[in-house]
Amino acid sequence: MQEIFDLINEMSPFLLLGFLLAGLMHAFIPNRLYTTYLAGNSLKSVIYAALFGVPLPLCSCGVIPTAMSIRKEGASKGATVSFLIATPQTGVDSIFATYSLLGLPFAIVRPIVAFFTAIVGGQAVNLFNKETVAATEHTEQRDYSEKRHTFIEKIVEALRYGFIEMMGDIGKWLVIGLIIAGLITTFVPQEFLNIFAGNSFMSILLVLCISIPMYVCATGSIPIAVALMLKGLTPGAALVLLMAGPAANAASILIINKVLGRKTLIIYLATIALGAIGFGLGIDYLLPREWFTPTLAKTAADCCDNHVEWFNIGCTILLALLLIYALINHLRGHKHCHCHEGECNCEGHADQVRQFTIKGMNCSHCATNAENAIRKVEGIERVSVDLASETATIVGNASDKDIVAAVEAIGFSALPL
User: Fold this and answer.
1) Has this prediction a pTM greater than 0.90?
2) In a domain? residue 7
């Protein structure tokens, strides 16, 4: 418990700042920017996708339906893969959290690596799995008009998104990452990892084999990387965990294979694996080791300033309260309306009310993307997706087949109740 408290106490101010910036990005940057520039088999669309993806605060599960949605809107396969690689590896929240525990060099290297590997992977898809120009450049014209909000309304939305929605999405995985880190630090014998301590290549391969199938978000991977480094693994091996852990997992592998095809999946995994190995070895052999000493190790033996210490504890308490609220909110569910057995209490609803079970959703981004996908089906009047119950309540005369197809197009499965 002491190890876990020390980790979260060091991270909490930076996590709160990162969540705030994530909320501001969500509230003030129009969503249409993420689909306008991503069509066509061009290097430019791949670069745009990487640029959008690196700072975007999406968790590892939320990026999959988001990427499938922009693909459906007309993004090329190359741009979609670039987005899939860049986005989960980093984000404004994880960059600040990386700085808090791993220092400035890691906080700089991490987004650079995400950006470079995303471009390589996306362009490789353009070269080796090219689509016809008509398939990638045709985008259905949609109404992108957005309701205008006042500055105060946008600030409220930023706080709600950053400290409620994102906290609910990332909080569980952050807690899991902290617990794993505490267990590694406390129970894994130093001698167990000593056999890898002098062998950078074997350390990197070990971590890579663990990271690719494992689900861990960009922020949750940080305390695990710190724990492994404190046990003697190299900075390069820690970078591999920070890259491959968030960018690939069993769920994303299945969905990419289903929606984008096997050849695209092979390029996607090869880019992540080779990029992780290459950059990991580069850090271990080309850069000074002292640049990448965890800040927790530097400050553990020092007496902290009382003002700083109490500020960190205050941030930790606030973060804990927000996590508890996010858990309660998730268990309680947050339906927009209640419709059951043809009766609906939502104003303006038609008589035809149906419900579908949607499988594969893991966060609020997943639910939002499923809701948006269903809403675009012709004949839909209203739709509400509840993450807690995995249920979509739909009003309209669209066919079940079209609704199921829309949900499956972004990587989920749907069945009418």
Assistant:
1) no
2) yes
